[in-house]
Amino acid sequence: MSSAAPELVTPGKGRGLLDVFHNRYLLRLIVDKEIQIRYRGTVLGLVWSYLKPGVQFAVFYIAMGVFLGLNRGLTNFAVYLFAGIVLINFFSEIFGNASRSITDNAGLLKKIYLPRQLFPVSNLFVALVHFVPQILILIVASVATGWFTGVDVKQILAIPVAIMIIAPFALGLGLIFATFNVFFRDAENFVDMILMVATWASPVLYAWTMVRDQLWGWVYYVYFLNPITVAVELFHYGFWYPTVNNPELWHVPPHLLTVWTPIALVISVLTLFLGDAMFRRHEGNFAQEL
Questions:
Q1: What pTM was estimated for this model as a whole?
Q2: Alpha-carbon distance 285 to 75, whole Å?
Q3: Quick one: three-class SS letters along the chain?
Q4: Distance between CA atoms of 225 and 38, rounded to whole angstroms?
Q5: Binning pLDDT at 50, 70 and 90, where does residue 1 land?
Q6: Burial group, residue 157, by CB count within 10 angstroms (0-12, 13-18, 19+)
Q7: Which listed residue, 179, 215, 239, 253, has the most CB atoms within 10 A of its CB?
């Protein structure tokens, strides 16, 4: 009795993100490699995970808080600002590094076959390594300004939901632009422009009410269709809002939890599926193009 012939597959093509789960050991090796390469030859190493956002926070706090007076208009503006910076840095690191992950590893990809998705996904875990210390600092700052006295269960749950929005959205965009970057090196410039705009296109440095009050009505709805906007507001709702002494004076965006958050989750998941599909469709030509 003859056994069935094995199914033939196109060389260089895999099962997309499913291959990442079946190659967890390789993923761990790549994550370790990325971290070692990033800090090779440095004296401070992972301490840069604290210094970079710290300097960024100081610059924005002086420019936006002191010079433009937002620290007088928003209670505990330092917590408000740092909550947005932490999340936007998480997005930027995943998206920026994932979009360059294939071209940066061109030498390895041309020599051996391994699931290409491992490289963009590894940047998600590297970003988490840097994200955790920043979250710890944010928690300490929030507690020091009265977080325990005002927080409730919904606000605590808003924090992981925000991360669940940002991670797949950034990775999906990273897969899309990693594919483009193999064939068109101009994609890196588009990524840099998107990252430059992302901080200002979400309420990191200012209050969402400025968009509501200063721009046309339809712009407000487009603004909240951006998953980053929703995720940042969820972080504010989880970390900053409980520290406000008179929360009735500050308005949570209408329908943030009931409408905008489900929409943001759907958009993030769809972006991830689109990125995975595009990546899988073209990955067989990566080695040739590189």
A1: 0.89
A2: 53
A3: CCCCCCCCCCCCCCCCCHHHHCCHHHHHHHHHHHHHHHHCCCCCHHHHHHHHHHHHHHHHHHHHHHHCCHHHHCCCHHHHHHHHHHHHHHHHHHHHHHHHHHHHCHHHHCCCCCCCCHHHHHHHHHHHHHHHHHHHHHHHHHHHCCHHHHCCHHHHHHHHHHHHHHHHHHHHHHHHHHHHHHHCCCHHHHHHHHHHHHCCCCCCCCCHHHHHHHCCHHHHHHHHCCHHHHHHHHHHHHHHHHHCCCHHHCCCCCCHHHHHHHHHHHHHHHHHHHHHHHHHHHHHHHHHHC
A4: 34
A5: very low
A6: middle
A7: 239
| 112 within 8 A of 23, measured Cβ to Cβ | no
Its sign, for the CA torsion 246, 249, 250, 254, is positive
- In degrees to the nearest 10, what's the CA dihedral of 95, 97, 101, 104? 150
State how far the Cα of 26 lies from the Cα of 24, in Å rounded to an integer: 5
The pair of structure tokens assigned to 201 is 């296109």
Task: Find how far residue 281's CA is from the centre of its chain.
Answer: 24
Write the pLDDT tens digit of every residue in 128-185. 988 988 898 899 889 988 888 888 999 999 999 999 999 999 999 999 999 999 988 8
Q: pLDDT, tens digit, for every residue of 181-207?
A: 998 888 889 999 999 999 899 999 888
